[in-house]
From TrEMBL:
Domain of life: Bacteria
The family this protein is said to belong to: Belongs to the CutC family.
Pfam families: CutC
SUPFAM superfamilies: CutC-like
Gene3D superfamilies: Copper homeostasis (CutC) domain
InterPro entries, per the entry: CutC-like, CutC-like_dom_sf
Name used for this protein in its record: Copper homeostasis protein cutC homolog
Species: Streptomyces bluensis
Length: 233
């Protein structure tokens, strides 16, 4: 039996959210400032998106470009505010200068999230040792997804890593869902689906007009149709 693949779309505001839902998205990643690869949105923007759609919304917790945690106290404050506004799912991930996960920063935020589900984002693609990172994070509460291209350079370069990690599903450190994203194209889908990958993340692919234009429902629908036509392993 074919399992419906999850399609997550980056949204910057309520207009994006409505278009993504109309196109068949299953979940949103809510961010601001894609010039910095996605930072934490305002509580007001989250509230507008939450009122506009009934999709699950994963909210980015990231204060600045790069993968250092920066001002953790500020992130804790905004996480409290987002939780108070009703946010229940999040996206985060921090590395130290040595390329290892910044467990102290992660755990400070997880205290606020109090068991909420969350994604470790593409910081995994910059890790000194991605296998070790997965094993260090394996027991962190709420972690259910890794967003990864398999490489800092994108899916074209990282496809062999994605396929290898998909094959390790269920091993220690590999129980979380693998969500492919980062330079993802439609022609990547058949091989990833055949390997059992069942979650996909798109940003620019949902915006034919570029990041200055909103999400296009038709572009999202093209991905939804392609995923539904690609059988899983």
């Amino acid at each position: 039996m074919t399992t419906r693949a999850l399609l997550e779309v980056i949204a910057l505001d309520a207009e994006d959210a409505v278009a993504a839902q109309a196109g068949g998205a299953d979940r949103l990643e809510l961010v601001t400032d894609m010039g910095a690869d996605g930072l934490t949105p305002t509580v007001g923007t989250f509230a507008e998106v939450r009122a506009a759609v009934d999709l699950p919304v994963r909210v980015m917790l990231r204060a600045a470009d790069g993968f250092a945690a920066g001002d953790v106290d500020a992130l804790v404050r905004v996480a409290y505010a987002l939780r108070a506004a009703g946010a229940e799912e999040f996206v985060l991930g921090f590395l130290g200068e040595d390329g290892r996960p910044d467990l102290e920063a992660v755990e400070h935020l997880l205290d606020v999230l109090d068991g909420c589900r969350w994604t470790f984002h593409r910081a995994v693609d910059r890790a000194a040792d991605r296998d070790a990172l997965r094993k260090q994070l394996a027991e962190q509460p709420g972690l259910d997804t890794y967003l990864t291209a398999g490489s800092a350079e994108g899916v074209d370069d990282g496809l062999p890593v994605l396929l290898a990690e998909a094959a390790r599903r269920g091993e220690p450190g590999y129980s979380q869902r693998l969500m492919a994203g980062g330079g993802l194209r439609l022609d990547h889908l058949p091989e990833l689906r055949a390997a059992g990958v069942d979650a996909f993340h798109i940003g620019g692919a949902a915006r034919p007009g570029g990041w200055s234009a909103p999400v296009a429902a038709g572009a999202v629908r093209e991905w939804r149709t392609a995923l539904d036509a690609s059988p899983d392993a």
